[in-house]
Amino acid sequence: MSYDLCLHVDANDPAVLAFAFVNARNYINGLPGKEFQLVLVANGPAVKLFVPAQAELQKTAEELMAFNKAVNEDEEVFFDMTIVLTADIDLTGYTWVPLDGYAFDFTTFDGNGHTISNMEIIHEVESGTPADQIGAGFVGVARGDIYFEDITFDNCKVTAYERAVGCLIGCVTGGFMSFENVYVKNFTVDGWMDYANQDPANGGHPISFRSAGFIGHIMVPGSTADFINCHVDGIKLSGFHNMAGFIGYASDAIDEYCFEECSVSNAEFTFSYCLSASY
Fewer CB near the terminus (10 Å): N or C of the chain? Predict the structure, then answer.
């Protein structure tokens, strides 16, 4: 099957057409096994060219970890692309590194009805790291528009040594977040650290806070989020404060948000702020 994209070019100069095609080809990236039919329409006859469609398929844990490497180590970008799961993926035996949100804008994660299970994150943060660079989740820090649809995360765990933890997104510093038909089940955040010892040099760690089933922290004004038919069931979060089912903390940073047909059930939160003399 092919998919048509008609690009109108106000010229019939072959050089202009070639430039338009090269840019379109670079814009539309890799869907194995399918073709994207690009039709260039100029002042003369239409020229039909074939380039790959804009999607990246993931069907095994190995492929998903290779995608993780492409984002976090190879610094590839996936703007205006759809990441599609074609099977359930079990990440048992792997340690997930939160995806760098710099790689995504107008990016869709389409679960296609499938589940990512047993994602484990051990989130260590260097002392002095700015708050807008701290986030633990499937995506660490989101900076552009990201859409999740038709996907379930089951039995995932984050061991957090700092703020901003969400199963899907740790921290949002801008853009529009959309979630439709998304489920988070049996999600655990271990953010309970010894309040009396927060010094890494002495075996302690900062205490995690701002944690939730979907997004840990929305921190930059102008962000928006929609949740449609989204559900959180069986989450167990521990940390300092600001824990919730969907968004741990937003304050005035979020301009608009919408919840339609959403629910939270079987949620357990363990707070350690009561150990502080200043709270």
Answer: N
